[in-house]
Structures are given as structure tokens and as C-alpha cells.
Write a structure and sequence with these properties.
Length: 253
């Protein structure tokens, strides 16, 4: 569905992404994992068409991304950014309804579209729907950004650290929503630092380090050595999921 072909990105002499090639399939949840500064957000932003690749291309359903119009892209892909901006004092429901903008609906239609109510319920914000968004806590703001993306009901969902600010219950609920969407055919790509959630819920892991895609593997093939070499931490296992456990005495490669 989304084919990243030999994509690189450099700026002011710094090579942030090196010849990345990854295919993201419909009906699956893929995690982009890797340490701070590995290039995960850069790759996600290029996939969303928000940053132009300086090498290679992203092909979406057979068409290079730059051949799609902005309107086509907006309906095809929903994007949740890593940084949540301060919201104006408009109601939570209205912020979520901005996800309907790509469809040219009136604000009233968008506000009452079932996708908006569903998105708010999926992130557990239905009871705060009429509250000014400016009053939300950090985790609630992150959930609202996700609700706005979910309200698009796009076949591709790109989310940058959607659970980083969430408590365990909401983080689990959001991962379950991603799995449900994947089961309905959505291509979900999510940047995660939580290896437990990544290995438990995602079908594929794309392990990045220093601008390189190091491994594209199912969670079962994520070895302790890979984690040690990439993050400099030891691991424990809970069922089949990986938990970072201790700092290695040796520096990571
Ligand atoms: N304009 C720039 N010039 C030079 N380096 C930059 C520029 N913008 C970003 N970088 C660097 O590019 C690297 C990749 O950034 P990116 O945001 O993609 O990392 P990330 O894997 O998402 O990290 P994190 O987990 O911390 O969010 C970082 O080391 C960052 O400092």
C-alpha cells in the first residue's frame, strides 16, 4: 500500500535518513522503533508527504506520492504529529471534527459526522467532548490529536508516538484500536518507544538507528542482541513481548 523506495533525506549537509526501503501493507500495524534521533519522525513525515525526500520516492497504491493532489493525499492518509500544539479554547468535538476537512463537509456536517463521535469514544474523550480543548491535560491533548486523525477514516494512518503521554490503560486501548483498524484493512504505521507494546501488538517492526533501517522483522525475531546493540539495554521477556530491563555496561554500537 505504501512503498518507501530507497528514500534518503539530507539537510544542511546532515544526512538524516539513508536509503530506506520498506513496504507497509494494508491490514497491518507496523511499528517504527529505534533510539532518539534515529530518523523515525523524518521517515514518517516523508511518508506523509510533509517533508520532500532528497533521494528515492514513496509510492502509494502504485502512484508516486508527488503525483497525488493534496486533496487525494489528505483523504488517503491521516497523520498524527509527535508534537501536540496548544489548542485554542474551542470544544474538543470541534477539534476532532477538523479530521473531516478533506471531505469538504460543512462545519455542522463535520461536527455531527459519526466518525467524529466514534473517534472521540475510541480515545476515551466522549465525556469531554464539549470541554474547551485548551483545558485538556497533556495525555488528553495527545488523545485528541489521535481522535482528529481517526476521524479522517483514511486507509493509511501514520501516528508519531501516539501513546508516549498516555497512562497504561489508554495506551493499551489505543493499541487495540490500531489492531481493530488493521483488521478492517487499514495500513497503520506507528512510531513507538515502548518495546513491550511494539512487540505485543505490531505485526512488523522497522528498527532504525542513526538514519538507517537496520531490521524489518516480525516481533518474534527481535533478539536481545538487536536491542542491546541498538539501545544499549538488556531485555526481559513477558510472554513473547520484550521489556527493556537494564543499561548495558558497554556502550551501544
Ligand atoms: N534541520 C536539521 N538539521 C540537522 N539535523 C536535524 C535537523 N532536523 C532534525 N535533525 C536531526 O535528525 C535526527 C533525526 O530526527 P528524527 O526526529 O527523525 O528522530 P526520531 O527517531 O524521530 O527521534 P525521537 O525518538 O527523539 O523523536 C535527529 O538527530 C535530529 O537532531
Amino acid at each position: 500500500m505504501l512503498n518507501v523506495q530507497n528514500v534518503g533525506f539530507s539537510i544542511e549537509g546532515a544526512q538524516l535518513l539513508q536509503s530506506a526501503s520498506v513496504r507497509f501493507e494494508a491490514g497491518s500495524v507496523t511499528a517504527l522503533i529505534g533510539p532518539n534521533g534515529a530518523g523515525k519522525s523524518t521517515l514518517l513525515r516523508i511518508m506523509a508527504g510533509l517533508l520532500p525526500a532528497t533521494q528515492g520516492q514513496v509510492v502509494c497504491n502504485g502512484a508516486p506520492l508527488q503525483q497525488l493532489t493534496l486533496a487525494q493525499r489528505a483523504r488517503l492518509m491521516a497523520y498524527m504529529p509527535q508534537d501536540v500544539p496548544p489548542f485554542p479554547p474551542m470544544p474538543v468535538r470541534e477539534v476532532a471534527s477538523l479530521g473531516r476537512l478533506p471531505y469538504g463537509e460543512s462545519s455542522a456536517q463535520a461536527l455531527h459526522h459519526p466518525a467524529v463521535a466514534q473517534a472521540l469514544a475510541e480515545v476515551g474523550l466522549q465525556d469531554l467532548a464539549e470541554r474547551p480543548a485548551s483545558q485538556l491535560s497533556g495525555g488528553e491533548r495527545a488523545r485528541l490529536m489521535l481522535a482528529r486523525a481517526l476521524a479522517v477514516q483514511a486507509p493509511i494512518l501514520l501516528a508519531d508516538e501516539p501513546v508516549a503521554a498516555l497512562d497504561p490503560a489508554h495506551a493499551l486501548a489505543v493499541m487495540q484500536v490500531f489492531c481493530k483498524l488493521a483488521a478492517q484493512g487499514t495500513c497503520v504505521v506507528v512510531v513507538l518507544h515502548d518495546l513491550l507494546l511494539a512487540t505485543r501488538f505490531c505485526k512488523t517492526l522497522v528498527l532504525m538507528q542513526q538514519g538507517h533501517v537496520r531490521h524489518i522483522i516480525p516481533p518474534a525475531r527481535l533478539t536481545d542482541d538487536m536491542v542491546r546493540q541498538t539501545y544499549g539495554v538488556t531485555t526481559r521477556r513477558v510472554e513473547n513481548a520484550v521489556v527493556p530491563w537494564d543499561l548495558c555496561t558497554a556502550q551501544p554500537n
